[in-house]
Amino acid sequence: MNADGPLQKITLAHGSGGKAMDDLIRDVFIRAFGPHSAALHTTGLNSITLEDQARLDLAALQQQGNRLAFTTDCYVVHPLFFPGGDIGKLAVTGTVNDLAVGGAKPLYLSCGFILEEGLPIDTLKKVVCSMQQTAEAAGVSIVTGDTKVVPKGSCDKLFINTAGVGVIAAGVNISAAAAQPGDAILINGYLGDHGAAVLDARGELALHNTIESDCQPLGDLVQAMLAACPDIHCLRDVTRGGLAGVLNEFAQASDCCIEIEETRLPIRTEVRGMCEILGLDPLYLANEGKLACVAPAHAAEKLLQVMQSHPAGRHSAIIGRVKATSEVVARTVSKPRVLMTTGFGSQRMIDRLVGEPLPRIC
Predict the structure, then answer these.
(1) Within a domain: 324
(2) DSSP H or E run through 147
(3) Where do runs of H (alpha helix) occur along 229-298?
(4) Residue 141 is inside which H or E element, if any?
(5) Cα–Cα dist 355/194, whole Å
(6) Counting beta carbons within 10 angstroms of the beta carbon of residue 78, is it exposed (0 to 12), middle (13 to 18) or buried (19 or more)?
(7) 127 burial class (0-12, 13-18, 19+ CB within 10 angstroms)?
(8) Domain carrying residue 83
(9) How do residues 159-214 score in pLDDT, each as one tens digit?
(10) How far apart are CA 340 and CA 351, in angstroms?
(11) For the chain, how many structural domains are there in total?
């Protein structure tokens, strides 16, 4: 069969529920996920019994905490592969991080695939292998999933949905509504890398740089942070909407004002330069391996040291603080939620994103 033959690409038969679908599941998904799956009974690749659900040990979960965390997200990105990652790595990382910033230890993932007719099977295999490698690095298992095939033109090559389950330890209570005046604001590294990398990878702007996506799982970093400071008030992964969006969510939910300092923001020169050329603001660019943290001021320096000692937080920084709204309203015309002190000493409001500053990148 030549490279363009039907066995080298996804066909509608792969979604029919028949032999072609069974072959795809066994050759692509079970080969990658099967040895790690709690949903499969495995005595060898040719003798796997498939079930319609994952079966998880409740006693083992209860040993790790007293609450379950459950989240889901969908992933679409163009191109499928970009410097520093791909849609598979993105799908695992994004869901792991959504669990982690709630204080949960991520444990199990499901994955659902929407495949476009004509997608090269080798492309699918690369994505699935990337998912498994990322899951192993994050310490989670992909335990159940589903596949659907749609006619050519009905989706952009490949869409992925992942859902995740984690366990929250007793005493951990993180909420966007928990910020208090005096708290410190921390982030774990450079802002805007993912948005800049994906935008450049499309090849539409004739820009040449070496920016890579920051796509990385944050579960281990968050557990280290909680060990150092169990009283973390707010955590959120900084994805679509950028840092500006997350800080506004904290400020609104907690009815406070957040002030940050421009000179403390870690932003790569290449990202800042791209933003200047395109008229973008790095505060609104998406990230896939960054978190914003609100913690008591007395714990900030210790927390910063722990973050900087972790591979996912080497460039962490304290970037601002939380203030009572009344402290800020007295010297402003409107009621701001997030203010930034610029390098010139002036202040400007950092509002929520309105619309999209560039084509969707995740």
Answers:
(1) yes
(2) strand 141-150
(3) 242-254, 269-278
(4) strand 141-150
(5) 19
(6) middle
(7) buried
(8) 6-53+65-168
(9) 999 999 999 999 999 999 999 999 999 999 999 999 999 988 887 666 777 899 99
(10) 10
(11) 2
DSSP string for residues in 42-110: -SSGGGPBP-SS----HHHHHTT-SEEEEEEEEE--SSSEETTEEHHHHHHHHHHHHHHTTTEEEEEEE
Q: Which of 168, 197, 230 corresponds to the end of one domain?
A: 168
Are 44 and 188 found together in one domain? no
- Residues 150 and 190 both lie in one domain: no
Runs of H (alpha helix) within the chain = 19-24, 31-33, 58-62, 87-100, 121-138, 193-201, 219-228, 242-254, 269-278, 300-308, 325-329
Taking the C-alpha atoms of residue 146 and residue 155, their distance in angstroms, rounded to an integer, is 17
Residue length, the chain?
Answer: 362
**Adjacent-strand bridge partners of 240:** none
Angle, CA of 322, 224 and 219, to the nearest 5° = 90
The amino acid at 260: I
pLDDT, tens digit, 9 for 90 and up, residues 8-64: 899 988 887 788 888 888 888 888 887 665 555 444 444 456 778 888 888 988 889
Contact 236, 99 (CB under 8 A): no
Longest CA pairwise span in the chain (Å): 75
How far the first Cα of the chain sits from its last, in Å, is: 35
Please name which of 354, 324, 319 lies closest in space to residue 340, comparing C-alpha atoms: 319
